[in-house]
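Field reference: sequence -> structure
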Amino acid sequence: MTGRGESPYRARAGRSGLSALDDALNDAIQRTGASAGGLYLWNGQRGNLGLAVLCGLPEEVVRPWLRISAAAPTPVAAAVREERLVWVGSQEDLVRDFPRAAAALPYRFALAAAPLPGRKGVRGALLLLWPASHPRSASRREQHHITAAARRIARLLDGPGPPPPVPERPRVVPVAPTGPHGVDRAAEAAADWIERLPEGALALDLQSRITFVDGTAATLLGRSAAQLLGTRPWQSLPWLETPLVEDRYRTAVMSRDPVEFTTLHPPDEWLHFQLYPDAGGISVRITPTGRPAATQQPGPQPGGRPQTGRIYQLLHLAAALTETVAVRDVAELVADQVLPAFDADALVLSTAEAGRLKITGSHGYDAATLDRLDGLPLDTGVTPAGKVLTSGIPAFFDDAEEMVRLYPGIPRISGKQAWAFLPLTISGRPVGCCILSYERPHTFTADERAVLTSLAGLIAQALDRARLHDAAHDLAHGLQQALLPHSLPDVPGLEIAARYLPAGHGMDIGGDFYDVIQLDTTTVAAVIGDVQGHNVAAAALMGQVRTAIRAAAGAPPGEVLTRTGRLLEDLDTGLLVSCLYVHFDLAHRLAILSSAGHPPPLIHRPGTRPQLVDLDPAPLLGADSDTACPVTHLDLTPGTLLALYTDGLVEKPTAGGIDPDRATLELASVLTARAGADLDTLIDALVHAPAPASPQTDDIAVLLLRI
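Structure field:
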């Protein structure tokens, strides 16, 4: 028996990792009365949320959201960022609050996204969906059930052992049955169908598979029951591959609304389909009918998969590509969303440079293979990539034999079995090439070819824009590095380490700076600061401030900052500077600090907990040079460490949002856990704690000094 208040899945023997999460998600769906759900887990290495378990929906419906950036405008990401329950009660609410998601999901349903609050921060999110019949607002009782389910799952993730890995593809598990167990699956499906409809026809499970078909339906569809059972309708009945059919099917799955449509069974028989969905599956009633009105005449169309979902995916990907900034972002987006959308196994994204293709992003290839693929020539006719870039026409190879027949001189490098070579061009100018590949032969349908060709144009625009950004960012970063110290002095009795991290996005040049000035054999000045703004003017002023401080170093700390502030007022740049100046008297084991609006440092004395230094800061430099800068004295026992940093270190966007106080506590915990460690090791731990949930928007400077 389980303990009082204990969820059954916690007590099941032999269940661990993702298997335990299967039970946890089913338990949450049953407790909250939802019709479907998913579990997203935080992937710190990739900086995103990955869908680990899916229940009650087919995977193809959620493919655009297998991985979600914590900064993405989606309900799941918002729940994690803001650490709150996000409720979307209708399609209108989704359009208003999350328009990008609404473009790819134009269906009626309600959803809730709740963060999974772990001991060390948010571990992910619980996503639950309800049919369109659910009231627009969630009752307080429902909200309690949702958040309680999220807490139970979080406790499971915080249990003993390593956290479960985030899989490349989610585990798709069925909704746990609520009736008697041990019933034959076909009989169970038939019983469900009998409960839903007055007469029998056909039944689908929530993964789109046919689970029951009667003789009349088999005759109308032109297939035997053996040919239909276990298949998806558009696989065994190609004439159902129409946009209207898929759109009606998705509406039934997402909204749980009854839907109907009429379509042509070649050569001349029209069939009327009525779909009745619920939490267990979809019952379908099929009747012969006459020719429908002209507004509803979907005939068979070429292609191996319904088209409506492709259109919605293209809308979603187009919106996502507009938000990419760096080449890395483009490569990650294509790997995370394009690959699963087309069932591809690997990707190479290359840019055209000096007549060769230089790899800028990849997925599914080992390093040795990438070395051989990198730098291949663009000679026309020699390689498929060169030919598609010259002609501007994509090339699709369904199997290796087709590749060998058309390009007999190309060696087999990767061992892949099918490829799509997509030229990335803008107004006839080659930008690069995107190659999707498969581990097995793959027939590219007309639908896939059309969508991939359209997608190539969007990727080309995003990649070209990202290349320009990266070039400007590299130039800006080089200028920033040139203005920082190239080396730190070797001072007897004082260990020193420093680190500078540029902002993760944008071409802006940061204004953070640090310096260590040896005044004589026993006195040292350490300074750290942050110039307002992120542009060339801020970087230039940063260089002037460093020079001014070096010129004034040796004077009392408060006087050094006052003189520097007067210089800023004379320069009349309109920019303000925060600055912290520390004078070390090593002979007397004394430090004298003065601050102009800068975050206070952390001090860690041996045998005590790290704490913030209690400073009385003056106004920012450039604001009021007539105000004296107060000073603070500190005794320095052997082993005492001072950690100076800029605000970017404690204002990083984490999975729980921006919280400087919590970030400072985490820094103190790192200092405690790594007391006595080498300063380079310690500073690496500090700049990565807490782990950012999205690329940092501010640069970071850290300076550590230990007696």
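Note: The first strand starts at residue 36 and ends at 43.
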